[in-house]
Amino acid sequence: MVKQTIQIFARVKPPVRKHQQGIYSIDEDEKLIPSLEIILPRDLADGFVNNKRESYKFKFQRIFDQDANQETIFENIAKPVAGR
Predict the structure, then answer these.
(1) Do residues 42 and 22 make contact, with C-beta atoms less than 8 angstroms apart?
(2) Going by C-beta distance under 8 Å and a sequence separation of 6 or more, which residues neighbour residue 26?
(3) Distance between CA 25 and CA 55 in Å, rounded?
């Protein structure tokens, strides 16, 4: 029987396209669960009211930014699970 709960991780990758679609920020306050906020600015050039949401916030056990390499990801996520 597994005694550990499901853990959710996020890895932010660099955008494939040169034109950035959204902006993100990572909040890793030690007292709280790390959160990732993605901001998708409304397109005001269309000339009509756009009531779409601009900000989306998600919580994870850990968030890896764009500078995290594959070895870091493995050491922190896969190795503890595979080593059981």
Answers:
(1) no
(2) 12, 34, 35, 36, 37, 63, 65
(3) 11
Helical spans, DSSP H, in 4-78: 70-73
Q: Say what the pTM is.
A: 0.69
Report pLDDT digits (tens) over 5-55: 788 999 988 777 665 666 888 888 767 889 999 887 776 555 566 677 788
Asked if 61 contacts 8 with a C-beta cutoff of 8 angstroms, the reply is: yes
Integer Cα distance of 70 and 32 in angstroms: 26
Residue 47 Ramachandran class (φ > 0 left, ψ -120 to 50 alpha, else beta): left
